[in-house]
Amino acid sequence: MTDEQLTVTDQRTGRTHELPIEAGTIPAPQLREVKTGDDDFGLMSYDPSFKNTASTRSAITFIDGDNGVLRYRGYPIEQLAEEGTFLETAYLLLFGELPDSGELDDWRMSVTQQMPVPGTIEQLMKSFRDDADPMGMFISAIAALSTLYPKAGDVRDSKARLLQIRRLIAQAATIAALVYRRHHRLPYVAPDEELSYAGNVLRMMFKKPGEPYRPEPVLERTLDMLLVLHADHEQNCSATTMRGIGSSLADPYSAVAGAAAALSGPLHGGANQAVMEMLEEIGETSRVPEFIGQVKAGEGRLMGFGHRVYRNYDPRAKIVKQVVDDVFAVTGRNRLIDVALELEKVALEDDYFVERRLYPNVDFYSGIIYQAIGFPTNMFPVLFAVARTAGWLAQWVEMLEDPEQKIARPRQIYIGPEEREYVALNER
Ligand code: CMC
After folding, report:
1. Mean predicted confidence (pLDDT) in 398-406
2. pLDDT digit string (tens) for 132-141?
3. Element holding 6 (H helix, E strand)
4. What is the pLDDT of residues 417-426, one digit of tens each?
5. Ligand 1 pocket mutation pick from 301, 318, 395 by most atoms within 8 angstroms of CB
6. 3-state percent helix, strand, coil for the chain, nearest multiple of 5
7. Full domain range(s) for residue 41
8. Are residues 179 and 220 both part of a single domain?
9. Which among 43, 298, 302, 407 is placed 20 to 30 Å from 224, CA to CA?
10. pTM of the entire structure?
11. Domain tally for the chain?
């Protein structure tokens, strides 16, 4: 019990109530004690879009939005991006500690071995139209996995759960590759157990039939780093969806498919695609002031800018911006970088963006790198989903093991009609 209290006086009754303050929060259920009489339901808090509501205690990811700080399990994102790998980061997110070299080898092998997907998924890919949206294909295939693994619903069995986790992290990569290959009419390529996770993503996507494939080291390392940067971001829209679906004890494949659907929108994981489309549309630096003027006039948003939590430079965006030149040294310069740099410069000097504290987020520069590596624009959200699968699963396990969590079920303020009589069809 905390010593800090919030004392509130209910002007309707004159009564005073004490609410405990813990970690800067008050327990919303205790508002129910603030009521006018025995038949009063009691107060609720009203918070559309959860702008000021903590829905969980979490030990996974820490963000200080004012100071641009991001840590996974206490480790600064800059250090993980510089020195860690994606599978090491996934392990850290899921199990709370960095693996030693033996644990990492076992983990990498056990994930890689799960990469081949059941034949049904390859069949499913063939059934999509030529112009099917990659994210829709990804979501469908992940959901379809739930029909193929009978123990998927045993979410209280930690051993079964671990198997589904390994499968999901592994097969998210394979499904992403299959989506790409379906669009390019290329056959399935098996993973290589010697390669890193990012190396296998590149191999399974880009290997040409009958030709050997070795991932280009700088691109493999950069992709791995992008996966690290996207692996988790605490209680965002898709993580909240994952927890919400998981809270009904649905199987993790269905929950990841739902989380991926939440990610797909342009305000969330679809932003990296939207940024590239915006940069293409602007086309050249001379058109930047005109575009900024349109944004300020309310005609669209500067995609890749702004964040609900960061009111400062997104630390992920800083890291991505730093590696752009290394990638270009291998791939050649992506001309859209000049448009992006000019956009950032103009926006950061403009009162509209300064007053609203809008800075580049992770998606502002990541698309330029994805494009340089060779991914088509409409695959960017899929790559985001592949990385975030690790974070969703860590959030899901934490939710299942948290005795405070029950099925997610917000309240509402009903604003519809009062009770009224049904009117027969022929009398309306
Ligand atoms: N361009 C222009 N104006 C903006 C932008 C933007 N990108 N973002 C916010 N604003 C304005 C907004 O119009 C509002 O102005 P006013 O107070 O005059 O009405 C003010 O800033 C506050 O915006 P908000 O919509 O209330 O902020 P939010 O916290 O609800 O939205 C956001 C956060 C990320 C959805 C929003 O900043 C946005 O739409 N950004 C562009 C999309 C984007 O890049 N999304 C990727 C987020 S990072 C990856 C991820 O984690 O998903």
Report:
1. 97
2. 999 999 999 9
3. strand 5-9
4. 999 999 999 9
5. 301
6. 55, 5, 40
7. 1-54
8. yes
9. 302
10. 0.95
11. 3
